[in-house]
Design goal:
466 residues; Transferase(Phosphotransferase), domain 1; 10 helices; 23% helix
Length: 466
């Protein structure tokens, strides 16, 4: 490597250096051999000398990075400072990096990209959970293991390099092509690594990074790239790759957002979104799931507000809530037992069957309306959706507020049995209670009214007193 100093025979820690196997603007990597164990390692030597204060800061950061243990992170075996020059000792991977395997301009198939991204995202998520930001994600730092696994290297180099006076000159020799906008302002955050990985994906899909610079000097090149990353939208991927799906392009561009807050919430969320976007879409009308929990026909089904569950009523007289993705039963609401009803000279059992269902807006409760056979009598049951527990029971005239937080009902349900719902003028006067849904506590009572309804979209009550 022409950019690396000849250090053949020099000793750093317990390793004696031989040939240079890699290098860049601010560090060179040498093949080193342990002087006692005859074991080879990769020795990364920074092209900078440190003051005593900087050495102490470097050692503190190196200790943090050395504690990172993950299947997709290259372990740091040793670190130190030799003659005021900092160095790191890492596991040696003879197959090189993804930049070696895929030179500039290489196009990768989506399955390979997804596989690489998932591995890198797992490593970065682990690091972020340990409060460590890599800051230098690029193909050169993604190494290939013996079984084609990806190993993330160079943790800590970017963290350390910004302490030197020549930071700008050192970083413009390649890394700025992958830097997040906020890194140019020295404000790296975990989402900065996500942006850099998105640049790599963009490059693998189109053959080029989103932003390039053609300037006569490295300093001007750095400034051009800084401006583009911060102010210029990346060229749409479909203009470079007409066959790319809109879903994949949307995921990549979201991760390339200028504002870190507008990117995905985590590395794993980013990787999952990309994997989902790459899944083949079934033809329209293809059944995605068949639920067989009911013993008879289903005549009503309702999605939960979050779209994760479905409640359904079957002719088997049960209400069931099930997972909309897997079909697994979450809870079952059986038909309530028959109750005796007194008629002249005889007692008949009165049967109530589920008739209709509705979710509370927050998805915590399921309202089940049960109607008596052959009559207008009914009951409104309020169930806890996740457990199936019966929270409260109201009569047929109960009215739930639009936000699902309150329930209004008359105190004497039997008054309404013989009156038509279409003839409001014939309704009897009654006292109506308004309860808090969660606790069942009555907060106020409206006296001597014929009925009420909730004004749509509000907590206002319209009284009926014709």
């Amino acid at each position: 490597m022409k950019d690396c100093e000849n250090r053949d025979g020099q000793q750093f820690g317990n390793y004696r250096l031989s040939k240079c196997i890699g290098g860049g603007g601010f560090a060179c990597v040498y093949l080193g051999k342990h002087i006692h164990l005859d074991r080879y390692a990769a020795i990364k030597v920074l092209k900078a000398q440190m003051t005593e204060e900087e050495q102490e800061a470097f050692l503190v950061e190196a200790r943090t990075i050395a504690r990172l243990e993950h299947p997709h992170i290259v372990p740091i075996l040793e670190f130190g400072v030799e003659s005021d020059t900092p160095f790191l000792v890492m596991t040696y991977k003879s197959r090189g990096s993804l930049r070696t395997a895929y030179p500039k301009g290489s196009l990768l198939p989506l399955p390979a990209i997804v596989s690489y991204v998932k591995q890198v995202a797992e490593a970065l998520q682990y690091a972020h959970d340990q409060k460590v930001v890599h800051r230098d994600i690029k193909p050169h730092n993604l190494l290939l293991g013996n079984h084609d696994e990806i190993l993330l290297s160079d943790f800590g180099i970017a963290v350390t390099s910004h302490r030197t006076d020549s930071w700008v000159q050192q970083k413009i020799l390649g890394t700025p092509f992958y830097m997040a906008p906020e890194q140019f302002r020295a404000h790296a955050v975990p989402a900065s690594d996500q942006y850099s990985l998105a640049v790599i994906i963009y490059e693998w899909l189109s053959g080029k990074v989103p932003f390039t610079a053609d300037a006569p000097s490295p300093q001007e090149q750095f400034l051009q790239l800084a401006y583009q990353h911060n102010e210029v939208p990346p060229p749409p991927l479909h203009e470079k790759v007409p066959t790319i799906s809109g879903a994949v392009e949307e995921v990549v561009h979201k991760a390339l957002a200028k504002d870190p807050q507008q990117r995905f919430g985590s590395m794993l969320a980013f990787a999952h979104a990309l994997e989902q976007a790459c899944q083949p879409k079934p033809p329209l009308g293809t059944p995605l799931l068949t639920y067989r929990g009911h013993c008879d026909r289903v005549y009503q089904a309702m999605w939960s507000p979050d779209g994760k569950s479905i409640a359904s009523i079957g002719y088997g007289t049960t209400v069931q809530v099930w997972n909309a993705t897997t079909g697994a039963i979450i809870s079952t609401y059986p038909r309530h037992p028959e109750v005796p009803t007194f008629f002249p000279h005889k007692i008949y059992p009165e049967r109530f069957d589920p008739d209709s269902i509705a979710w509370s807006p927050d998805g915590e409760y399921l309202f089940v309306w049960e109607r008596a056979w052959g009559g207008f009598r009914g009951k409104l049951h309020m169930w806890r959706a996740n457990t199936g527990g019966n929270a409260h029971i109201y009569g047929s005239q109960a009215r739930v507020s639009p936000d699902g937080q309150y329930v209004a009902f008359p105190d004497d349900e039997d008054k309404f049995i013989n009156f038509s719902a279409n003839d409001l003028g014939s309704w009897p006067l009654s006292n109506w209670n308004v309860n808090i849904r969660e606790t069942g506590k009555t907060i106020f009572t409206l006296h001597d009214i014929k009925g009420l309804t909730w004004l749509p979209g509000s907590k206002c009550i319209v009284l009926v007193n014709i």
